[in-house]
Write a structure and sequence with these properties.
- The protein has 305 residues and is of the alpha+beta class.
- The protein has helices at 21-36, 44-56, 225-238, 241-244, 246-264, 269-300; strands spanning 7-12, 15-20, 66-71, 73-74, 80-87, 95-103, 106-114, 128-134, 140-146, 153-159, 163-171, 183-187, 195-200.
- β1 (7-12) and β2 (15-20) form a beta hairpin.
């Protein structure tokens, strides 16, 4: 068992959370070492997302600092190309492709995926899939949610980055700001690209199975918006929002109540989806505020009310 060398204590009403600053420094060391290798620091703050969740679960923050490798791809001016997306052990049968076309300072990205299974089958906190691009300096951008219609989905987006890597992850909701360790698809290596490392949130989210290899596929459109709303609120509470972002959490709770009411009244699907997505937005705002306040307190050794 790793013993803490230095403790800063945050008081959350009747809760006391001891932060192991040695572990926190080790996480930042991962970020700083990549800086010395010539990469940017843009991904550093994303690791903070998982730290507070770990602290409230009594788990080691070091687990949140996992790194993966991927090869970048480059869009050539005036050219279009199709890049294959390969599956990982999380979803061995999955496949996909990304059509890229560089027009001036913008790259159009059209992603199609198939042989997919609902992310909710991972269990726990997972509900949906998110498309990401990672820049050569490790900036990670959430390009949007991939909603399954049976086993397939497609999504169009754009970026001004000339070079980037593509990956798809299972996530709790569509508004996550850092990819989870449940990467299901990623672009294949290519000769023109460069190898980069990027961080994923390892062990932050609960799950029941680590792979969907022997799980049956779904039929018809997969609706996960309400599940995403419940999960987003649960993550906000887990991050300490009840004490650190009380007002924002209350807004999320009221939005969730309204979502459930619409569902019980049998309102049309689009209205329920819109309200559920609004709930996610409120819950994420509460979670982020709680995380930022908790981390600021940890850095300064400040006791918060």
């Amino acid at each position: 068992m790793r013993r803490p060398h230095t403790l800063h204590v945050l008081h959350f009403s009747d809760k006391t959370c001891a932060l192991n600053t040695l572990a926190l420094r080790s996480v930042w060391k991962t970020v700083c070492e990549s800086k010395t290798r010539g990469s940017g620091m843009k991904f550093g703050h994303s690791l903070v997302v998982g730290l507070v969740l770990f602290l409230f679960q009594g788990r080691d923050p070091l687990e949140a600092a996992a790194l993966r490798e991927i090869t970048t791809i480059m869009g050539l001016e005036g050219h279009s190309e199709t890049v294959a997306l390969r599956s990982t052990e999380r979803l061995p049968d999955g496949f996909g492709k990304a059509r890229l076309e560089r027009k001036g300072s913008t790259t159009d990205i059209e992603v199609e995926i198939g042989a997919m299974k609902p992310a909710s089958l991972f269990g726990g906190d997972y509900n949906t899939y998110v498309l990401w691009i990672v820049s050569p300096d490790r900036e990670m951008l959430n390009l949007g949610e991939l909603v399954l219609d049976g086993t397939r989905s497609r999504l169009h987006s754009t970026t001004n980055l000339p070079a980037f890597a593509i990956l798809i992850t299972a996530e709790p909701h569509y508004l996550v700001r850092a990819p989870s360790a449940f990467v299901v698809l990623e672009n294949r290596p290519n000769k023109r690209g460069s190898r980069i490392q990027y961080p994923v949130l390892e062990g932050v989210y609960n799950f029941e199975r680590a792979t969907l290899e022997h799980v049956k596929q779904a039929r018809g459109k997969v609706y996960t918006e309400v599940k995403q709303a419940f999960t987003a609120l649960r993550l906000a509470r887990r991050a300490g929002a009840a004490d650190l972002a009380t007002g924002e959490l209350l807004l999320a709770e009221r939005a969730l109540d309204k979502t459930v009411d619409l569902l019980r009244q049998g309102m049309n699907r689009s209205e329920i989806e819109a309200q559920a997505r609004e709930t996610v937005r409120f819950a994420v705002a509460a979670q982020h505020l709680a995380e930022d306040r908790a981390f600021s307190g940890a850095e300064g050794g400040v006791s918060l009310p």
